[in-house]
Design a protein that fits this description.
2 domains, 5-stranded antiparallel β-sheet, 16% strand, binds alpha-D-glucopyranose
């Protein structure tokens, strides 16, 4: 009988809940055609049409230190790289397959170099690992929900041995848990139809991972995908429960609480445009101001945001992505204390923006100024020790203006005569509470 260790769990998730902001990196063979990481499935591409990407994989601009520095400058606390995506191509030197980066003209173990670079920047390092493998002969082909050959009867499955596939899957996960030092995060992806939990031999898998990497944080996608919450949410944790919920391309409207109403650990995974893998035709990038406000929203609701970049086939992060990261970093340089180690405040969301809290410090995120002094609903004057703007450190007085004399029960902040706030995206007012 699996016994959930709440104390060990809280210890495991502590750094994650303090970091709040991470970088996802989707990079692999699919980055060469540049039509997203599902290109083989979307286009029902046969293996032989995909192999030239393997034969020509030689990313001259691969520079994981530059990736790690870009993440750090953006204020991110952790970085997760796709060690293997659904196409089965390994960015690491697996002894269990020839379909790996060390067998390409590139000839290098990109995962090893990535982990060294991220750790070198003082960031936490994680690996995404696909449970699905469209390259492996024992993975279901014909009739599967997603396999590139799902509609081709020539790829029927009578000779395929799924247990042999699971031996391979577990073996590769053992490799990444054994050969690359201490991993901070494992991002498995994803369960669907009957392929969930014990269908992956989940208990055996999790026991192995936890024995090799006792402190590693693991997502909930052995059980679910971006749809579904997992057994921790049900307050009935299975041996393969995830440590955090993984809403995808959305922010849970009210955060996430388990069935008993307890706040859960969760991370919204967000693309910059609409693709995880490199896709130059997709110019629908989310502007930095929007992403700053979405990061604040995640934290104000008790969650993390992991923001994705999809480097091209040469290993270069697209210029649009770098520009967005720089915009977020400029804001984080001045305001990261309103994000890191913060969570929801026990106050109503204000009309002008959002609130995050860390201990006795409240951070009022002002997206839009009010006319006249700023009402800080729910706060009493006696509670407040000091107010200041994070942007420039300027102290902010409590307003004594006559204009709000009809509302003596409400505390107003006097942001000064200039209605234009220092930061047009999110000016943060820190309120330090007494005691
Ligand atoms: C979904 C996508 C997958 C991506 C993952 C990231 O599962 O299908 O391609 O890697 O989300 O969250």
């Amino acid at each position: 009988m699996y016994c959930f260790d709440e104390i060990a769990y809280r210890k495991r998730v502590d750094w994650f809940c303090k970091a709040r902001f991470g970088m996802f990196i989707h990079w692999g063979l699919y980055s060469i055609p540049g039509r997203g990481e599902w290109v083989r499935s979307d286009e029902e591409m046969p293996e032989e049409a995909y192999l030239p990407y393997f034969e020509n994989f030689d990313p001259k601009a691969f520079n994981p230190t530059a990736w790690a520095k870009a993440a750090k400058a953006a204020g991110m606390g952790y970085v997760v790289l796709t060690a293997k995506h659904h196409d089965g191509f390994c960015l690491f030197d697996s002894a269990l397959t020839d379909f790996k980066s060390t067998n390409t003209p590139f000839g290098r173990d990109a995962v090893a170099e990535f982990l060294e670079a991220v750790r070198g920047e003082g960031l936490k390092a994680g690996l995404y690992f696909s449970l699905i493998d469209w390259h492996h002969p024992d993975y279901p082909h014909y009739g599967d929900k997603f396999h590139p050959m799902r509609n081709n009867p020539a790829f029927e499955n009578s000779h395929r041995d799924f247990d042999r596939y699971l031996d391979f899957l577990h073996g590769q996960i053992r490799e990444i848990c054994t050969n690359y030092g201490k991993l901070d995060l494992l991002w498995f992806d994803f369960a669907y139809d009957h392929l969930r939990g014990e269908a992956w031999r989940g208990t055996e898998l999790m026991d192995m991972v936890r024995s090799l990497q006792p402190d590693v944080l693991i997502d909930n996608r052995i059980e679910v995908s971006g749809e579904g919450f997992g057994s921790l949410y049900q307050c009935a944790p299975t041996p393969y429960h995830g440590d955090f919920v993984t809403p995808e391309k959305m922010i849970p409207p009210q955060g996430i609480r388990d069935v008993r109403g307890n706040p859960m650990v969760w991370e919204s995974c967000i693309t910059m445009n609409n693709n995880w893998g490199y896709c130059p035709a997709d110019h629908n990038f989310k502007p930095a101001p929007l992403l700053i406000k979405k990061l604040v929203e995640c934290v104000s609701k008790g969650g993390n945001m992991i923001l994705n970049v999809g480097p091209d086939g040469d290993g270069k992060i697209p210029a649009e992505s770098l520009e967005i990261l720089a915009g977020i970093g400029a804001w984080m340089d001045k305001n990261s204390e309103s994000i890191r180690s913060c969570g929801p405040a026990a106050l109503e969301k204000p009309e002008f923006g959002r609130i995050t809290q860390n201990g006795n410090r409240l951070y009022f995120h002002i997206f839009e100024n009010t006319l006249g002094p700023l009402p800080l609903m729910g706060l009493q004057k006696e509670q407040v020790a000091s107010l200041r703007l994070l942007d420039n450190g300027r102290p902010v007085p409590i307003s004594t203006s006559w204009v709000h004399s009809d509302y003596p029960e409400i505390l107003f902040a006097d942001l000064g005569p200039n209605p234009v706030l220092p930061d047009p995206v999110d000016t943060v007012l820190e309120v330090c509470l007494k005691g």
